Structure formats: structure tokens, C-alpha cells
Amino acid sequence: MSTDAAHALVDDYLRLGLAFDRIEPGFVDAYTGDPALRAEADNAPAPDPAELARRARDLSRALPGALPADRAAFIGSHLTALECSARRFAGERIGFVDEVKAYFDVDITPADPDGYAQAHAAIADALGVPGATGDRLREAYAAHRRSEEIPPHLVQPLVDEFAGALREVVRGRYPLPPSEAVEFEIVSDKPWSGFNYYLGDYRSKVAINTDLPQYLSVLPGLVAHEAYPGHHTEHCRKEQFLVGERGEAEQMIFLVNTPQCLMAEGLADHALAAAKGNDWQTWAAEIYADFGLRFDAEKARALSAATAGLLHVRQDAALALHDAHTDPDDVAEFLQRWLLAPPERARQMLRFLTSPLWRAYISTYVEGYELLGRWLDAGEAAGDRRIDRFGRLLDEPLTPARLRAELAA
Questions:
Q1: pLDDT for 168-186, tens place per residue?
Q2: CA nearest neighbour of 76 among 89, 87, 62, 86
Q3: pTM
Q4: Which among 97, 228, 238, 356 has the fewest CB atoms less than 10 Å away?
Q5: Is residue 193 a contact partner of residue 268, using CB atoms and an 8 Å limit?
Q6: What span, in angstroms and rounded, lies between the C-alpha atoms of 156 and 312?
Q7: Burial label, 188 (beta-carbon count in 10 A; 0-12, 13-18, 19+)
Q8: For residues 368 and 222, what is the distance between their CA atoms, to the nearest angstrom?
Q9: Cβ pair 7, 218 in contact under 8 A
């Protein structure tokens, strides 16, 4: 296929992705390409979902030989996801497990509740109440969480402080254009805790939701996840190198419910440890001390290790809702029980899990964290520095299938 024909195929992929925003606003998480394509999509008649599914299939059939293998594999996996979304928008009933597989190229199964019980035992030990279960453990955990609440007036200055410190780490290892910048804003009434709006030209707006309290042990990871070296850094590096230097225009669009999301969320959830190491709590405690806040780094580290055993709880809740069709009230109780969450927190999580756009998205955090964690660990075992291997996630158009292939090799 000629270069012009390859460009035309990628433009058709961009047009297809942009059309989904007409059906479900917010489906296009970011777009930095030709404004004329965006205007064309915005001004066209409302798309027919069944027609979008057909276009996705046609583009998939045109891929072999049209582009280099790695680019064709990347676009192909995203066309599979878009076809599934279009079929759902057209009213087709698709099993939840199959939906997640099509979107994110991962297979999901329920976790063993015995693992959750073991995690609770480890949490009890970390809290200094060994053997505590049920209401006693929930009360001890709630008391600890209250002790970690950040005064609302300090959230913004702490966000700025953590962002500045992490930005210096990132710039020292992964240079960013001088014009890059992140604007943080405090918002409410959202189904998520934080969100990166990538605006293009190396700029992001990061919204932090204050419907629920912000916690000492969570805020550094939230800033790393959304900004440095998480979502913002990944967008900047891919815009600079994949788009700017290599001309891979398919990277100018970021679509919800695609393998892109699993890779991005897994990357972002590993961002803080990649930047500051597994002892990041000690670094955070020093910053908090400057604001007159005491942060018990050792206890936070122990609790982080213990609560890792609860990673699958929210995905199991999604499976209960959408696969087993469990009553939402029972799912809320499940979340409260295993995550030791107060009712309002469980309801906030349920809001995310029942959103038409986001209902499957929890798997990006669960499966993305585990897959990318195994891949990063394999690099360290082979002698690579974790921060260096993390750079491949920032700079390359990797997919879940590519990581699995490298792990198998």
C-alpha cells in the first residue's frame, strides 16, 4: 500500500474514533490531531452504531500489509474494542466477560475470597489489632483513615508541592518540552477521584474530586498517576516522539474502553514507585512535615502491602453486577465488607461501576496493574532498572498482547 493510502487508512481510524463521541460524550478522552477531522465528525449526521461496527470491521480487514506490523497490531486491537462498543450502542447484548475481553484484551475471572480474608488479617496486623475481624477491624481501619484525612485547605498546596517534586524527577530522566504544563483544579460531583484532560501541545488539566476526603497515603500516588510520571507524562512523550518524530498519527486519539486505557492505567498506577521507589512513603513524610502534618511512613508501607490483597474486590463487584446480575444493594455491601469502606464510599464506587461509559473500566486498574507489574518485575530480574523499563511504557505503542508475548519469551 502506498504512503498516501496508509495515511488515508489512519485518517479513517481517527474519523471512526471521533464518531463515537457523538454517541457517548467523553468516549474520546483526548484528541490532538487535525481540527478539521474533529469538525467533520461534530457536524456530520448522528452516526448509526451498527454502521460504526461495520466500518471497524472493514478497517480491520484492510490492515494487513497496509502498515508496519507493530502499528497494524496496535490499531487492530483498538478496532476490535470499537466494534464491541458499537455493537453495545446498537443494543446488542454482550456478556460482560466478553465485553472486557474485547475492550482491553484480557480475560477476567472472580478472585478467591479466601485471599481477601488473608488481606484483612494482614491489615489487622498493620493497624496493631491482630486478629480483629468484622466490625472491630472496620472501626480500626476507619479510625486510621480519619487520622489520615488532609485538611481541605491544604489539598491544593500539597498537590502543587508533590507535582513540583515529581516533575523534577521526571525531567531528569525523561526530558519534556519546556512548554509542558499541568493545571490542577478541585472539582466535585464526579464518579472518579482524579482525571487527566490532555489538551495537546504538552498541556494537561488535572481535576481532583473532593466529594470524599483526600488521604495522606493516597495523594502522592494520585498526583503521580495523573501527572508525573503518569498520564500527562505519557501523553507528552508519545506526542513528542511517536507523533512528532515518527508520524504515527493513530497516537493522536485516546479512546475510552480500548487497550490503550489498560496500558495507561497500569502505567499510571506504577508511576509513583517508578519515580520514587517502593520507599516513597519516607519521601512523602518529609514533604508532609513541611506542612505540619505527621505521616507514619512505616505504617503506611505495611498497610499498602496488606491492602494489595484486595486489588480484585472492585472487579469482582463489577462481575457481580453485570455478569451475575446481583442486586446493587448487595454489591454495595460486598464493597463495604471487603474494602472496609463506609457506605458513602461504597456508593461512590458503585456509581462508577454502573456508569454506562465506565462500567467495565475497573478492569484497566486491576488487570493493567498486574500485567504491567509482572512485565516490570521481569525487566528487573533481567537486570534492567525499573525506571528505565518504565520508559518503554511512556515512549512505545505497547499493547497487552505485546507484553504477554515478551513475558512468554
A1: 999 999 989 999 999 998 8
A2: 62
A3: 0.95
A4: 356
A5: no
A6: 31
A7: exposed
A8: 16
A9: no
